[in-house]
Amino acid sequence: MSFLERKISVLISESFSPFSGTVKLVNWKQSLVEFLSTKMALVLTYTAARQLSQMLLALAFFHGSEYLLALVIHGISNVNLASLLISNHYILAMILSFLEYFVEILLVPELKEHWWVSNMGLALVVIGEIIRKLAIITAGRSFTHLIRTSHVEHHKLVTHGIYKFVRHPGYCGFLIWAVGTQIMLCNPLSTIAFAYVVWRFFAQRIPYEEYFLRRFFGPQYEEYARRVHSGVPFIR
Ligand SMILES: C[S@@+](CC[C@H](N)C(=O)[O-])C[C@H]1O[C@@H](n2cnc3c(N)ncnc32)[C@H](O)[C@@H]1O
User: Fold this and answer.
1) What residues flank ligand 1, with Cβ below 6 Å?
2) Beta-carbon neighbour count of residue 215 at 10 Å?
3) What stretches pass through the bilayer (predicted)?
4) What is the value of pTM for the model shown?
5) Which atom in ligand 1 lies closest to the alpha carbon of residue 206?
């Protein structure tokens, strides 16, 4: 056994030894396999099973219901797969968040055991879903996944229901939902990244969307925008 092999063997056997302070020299390869298989077993714990299945359910429910509502409101001929709201950037962000989850549950499994944090995330996912779906149902045909750049007859300014409290409940709900998914997974890096990326996306989208709303509805929209907050932090 080389010096390095002996060192690794001691380190690993120390971390597994049930007798504190006892240094057992064991075959380092066998120890490494034991070490990795113990870590892998952690991935299959109750914690991971529950957090990951909640995440998959949240994703399936969010995208499935977006598509179904679009079908019901706009009719099959006006809806395509874009209504699933799954872009390449979105897929990449989700893959990175799953990657963070797996790396952390292997290296720092105790991070995922903060159940009050995870449950708070789950509550945010549910609240975000409710706000967004209320927005879609309230706005009806006025709520299109692509921003309208020309006025159509049936496009009416919506200022009732949840739009009485915030101008962009659909975006507000999505922001809460997206950040909630990462808090639910106890993913610190993705929580910050999702909050920033989603917020920045809406910070650019809202002025663009409102430029057309002002053109379509003029002083009526001006007055509404003065009265009601956007619903997205730091965007008036
Ligand atoms: C993806 S929806 C988002 C709606 C809104 N920004 C929200 O977050 O609930 C975008 C479409 O909704 C329309 N829209 C946004 N606010 C509206 C309102 N108060 N009344 C009618 N249409 C609106 C825009 O013209 C755009 O075509």
Assistant:
1) 135, 139, 142-145, 147-148, 157-158, 163, 168-171, 209, 212-213
2) 12
3) 56-77, 89-108, 120-140, 174-199
4) 0.84
5) 6
